[in-house]
């Protein structure tokens, strides 16, 4: 009987020690994938270039994470009336969470742009497959005033 009492006392003591012991610290949460930590963005450089042939070159940076369809950086420019915009090329984007440069060159069809103040908008846009027709999904956008210089 004495052995049985000693075993019960030992078990009860062990249970009390377990209850009194501090809870183990929770495991650190798994670090999220770095790509999810990075915000998607697009920037426009403050200077654009106009070549002698009238073509315009705009540039900047972008950062995006994975998409389900092709992603592009598009840009447009306006001078004077900002409601009239001229598309200036498009660049295929690599969405790996890293910062990349984009450069778009194009010639507006109906106007000759002049060196000086202009307004540029860049858009990071994905063509997401949904049904029969891919639909645009916008990742980031920046609009800013720039200076167009003759190159």
From TrEMBL:
Keywords: Signal. It comes from the Bacteria. Residues 39-150 form the DUF6299 domain. The keyword Magnesium does not apply. InterPro entries: DUF6299 (IPR046266), TAT_signal (IPR006311). Residues 1-27 form the signal peptide. This is DUF6299 family protein. It comes from Streptomyces salinarius. The lineage of its organism: Bacteria, Bacillati, Actinomycetota, Actinomycetes, Kitasatosporales.
């Amino acid at each position: 009987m004495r052995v049985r009492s000693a075993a019960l006392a030992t078990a009860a003591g062990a249970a009390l020690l377990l209850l009194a012991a501090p809870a183990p610290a929770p495991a650190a949460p798994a670090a999220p994938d770095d790509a999810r930590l990075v915000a998607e963005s697009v920037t426009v450089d403050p200077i654009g270039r106009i070549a002698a042939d009238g073509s315009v070159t705009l540039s900047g940076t972008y950062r995006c994470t994975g998409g389900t369809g092709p992603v592009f950086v598009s840009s447009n420019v306006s001078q004077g009336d900002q409601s009239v915009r001229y598309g200036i090329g498009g660049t295929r984007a690599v969405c790996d969470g890293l910062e990349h440069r984009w450069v778009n060159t194009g010639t507006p069809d109906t106007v000759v742009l002049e060196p000086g103040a202009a307004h540029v908008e860049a858009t990071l846009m994905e063509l997401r497959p949904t049904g029969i027709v891919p639909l645009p999904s916008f990742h980031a956008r920046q609009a800013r005033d720039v200076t167009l210089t003759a190159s």
